[in-house]
Amino acid sequence: MARYDIAIIGAGIAGASLAAVVAPHASIVILESEERPGFHATGRSAAFWSETYGGPHVQPLTSASGDALSAGGFLDPLGALQIGRRDDAAKIDAFLAEFEGSGVILDAVDPHGIVPGLRAEWTLGVLERSCAYIDVAGLHAAFLATARRHGGQLLLGSAMRGAVRAGDLWRIDIGNDEPVAATILVDAAGAWADQVAACAGVAPLGISPFRRTMVQLRTNPAPPEKLPLVSDIGGTFYFKPEAGGRLWLSPHDEITAEPGDAQPEEIDIAIAIDRFERVVDWQVERVEHRWAGLRSFAPDRLPVYGFDPTAPGFFWCAGQGGFGIQTAPAAAALAASLLLGVSPEAFVAAIDPMRYAPDRFRSLA
Ligand SMILES: Cc1cc2nc3c(=O)[nH]c(=O)nc-3n(C[C@H](O)[C@H](O)[C@H](O)COP(=O)(O)OP(=O)(O)OC[C@H]3O[C@@H](n4cnc5c(N)ncnc54)[C@H](O)[C@@H]3O)c2cc1C
Predict the structure, then answer these.
(1) Which of 47, 116, 257, 304 has the fewest CB atoms within 10 Å distance of its CB?
(2) Residues forming beta bridges with residue 30, ordered by sequence position
(3) Which of 8, 9, 13, 45 to mutate to test the pocket of ligand 1 (most atoms within 8 A of CB)?
(4) Which of 320, 326, 327 for a ligand 1 pocket mutation test, highest count of atoms within 8 Å of Cβ?
């Protein structure tokens, strides 16, 4: 039976980024159910880095990740504009107040100077200039390549079916293949995080997947090249320009789902287009592409990194919600320091990992 220091379950961005940081220091294997890593949430994102997205308790992870993403060439300027109608003034104020003192620069602007054809009632705007496109595929591939270069093994088509702790080792069942042994089991299984815990005999944390829909549109006029990511401060849509004059649009839906291969529903596509047409006077000419993915949240909507206090050798790296890619470098560095029991790298040293500890969901009485 092959034996490793660490077995990571899931080769999405969470598992891949953690593997890249840990592989130089420990023997690791990544077990991935699918034949292609990134088949689930990681391959279905809207691909932006926004310091405000996910709220003020996620922002330190996103902001800390910015330099690493930028140094690797994974970011391209985009900008983000939150828009609102007159009745949304309190929401705009609350949004500005949430990030006051955070270091994120937000400017109140007239949205009509930025979005041509914006309907008259959208009078309020807040611009976040730092928002950027992320090259998700490039980032994910780079993490996996780093892990491999340091001896990490990636086993595709290898779903963990169960795991039993005997002494200080996990014996991990991967179906017909030879089981794998590891001292530490990392649960980076995205929407399946609770299921993976349960089949290792660990109590779930309540990590729940929610479906989100995306459509790629042709519009007339085509979105201007310099259009930022445009979102409703009320959280009912966002859209952003893409290469070749295309537009990506989401109704910002969050629909309860089971873990699986999420598919878009016609109704959600229709809702997205209806909302879009109430924002700008552009015509939707064609839906070129549609997809959906699962965003998985812990009950308090913050990610979970750390050893489970009730299960020796079981480490959570889950609940990345809608921000798993933009936070990946910092999250991986923070999680790796907990996993290896070493001091965190300087760029995450100011972030308190206790905020994300699984302990917050466990009664230790
Ligand atoms: C529509 C949409 C838009 C988004 N936009 C953004 C964005 O702009 N910016 C951003 O930062 N984030 C965004 N996100 C969120 C981001 O995609 C996720 O937070 C992130 O991809 C989660 O990564 P993950 O590795 O935890 O999950 P996944 O990518 O789902 O990976 C988990 C992996 O675990 C594997 N697995 C499950 N069970 C087992 C098992 N038993 N054995 C072995 N393998 C197993 C699965 O096959 C899967 O490959 C978006 C998400 C969606 C759906």
Answers:
(1) 116
(2) 8, 154
(3) 45
(4) 320
**Minimum-distance ligand 1 atom for the alpha carbon of 40:** 30
Residue pLDDT, tens place only, 151-169: 999 999 999 999 999 999 9
Ligand 1 lined by 251 (C-beta under 6 Å): no
Residue 351 and residue 251: Cα distance in Å, rounded? 32
The pLDDT value recorded for residue 72 is: 97
Query: What pLDDT sits at residue 365?
Result: 47
What's the gap between Cα 176 and its chain centre? Answer: 32
| Most informative mutation of 17, 31, 33, 229 for ligand 1 (most atoms within 8 A of CB) | 33
Q: How far is the CA of 261 from the centre of ligand 1 (A)?
A: 11
> What CA–CA distance (Å, rounded) separates 326 from 60?
11
Distance between start and end Cα atoms, the chain: 37
* CB of 317 sitting under 6 A from ligand 1: no
The CA–CA distances, whole Å, from 20 to 56, 154, 310 equal 27, 12, 27
Using a pLDDT cut of 70, give the percent of the chain over it: 99
Question: Among all chains, which residue has been given the structure tokens 């996993």?
Answer: 339
CB 243: neighbour CB atoms within 10 A? Answer: 7
Q: Copy the structure tokens of residue 76.
A: 């391209």
Distance CA 345, CA 199 (A): 33
- Measure the CA–CA gap between 70 and 64, rounded to whole angstroms: 11
Q: What is the mean pLDDT of residues 250-273?
A: 98
Q: Residue 302, Cβ neighbours under 10 Å: how many? A: 21
255 CA to middle of ligand 1, Å? 16
Compute the average pLDDT of residues 38-58: 98
User: Could you give the 3-state DSSP secondary structure of residue 358?
Assistant: helix
pLDDT exceeds 70 at position 134: yes
pTM of the full structure: 0.98
Residue 317 CA, closest ligand 1 atom number: 26
The Cα–Cα gap between 75 and 63 comes to 13
Considering only CA atoms, which residue is closest to atom 18 of ligand 1? 324
Cβ–ligand 1 contact at 33 (below 6 Å): yes
Residue having the nearest C-alpha atom to atom 14 of ligand 1: 322
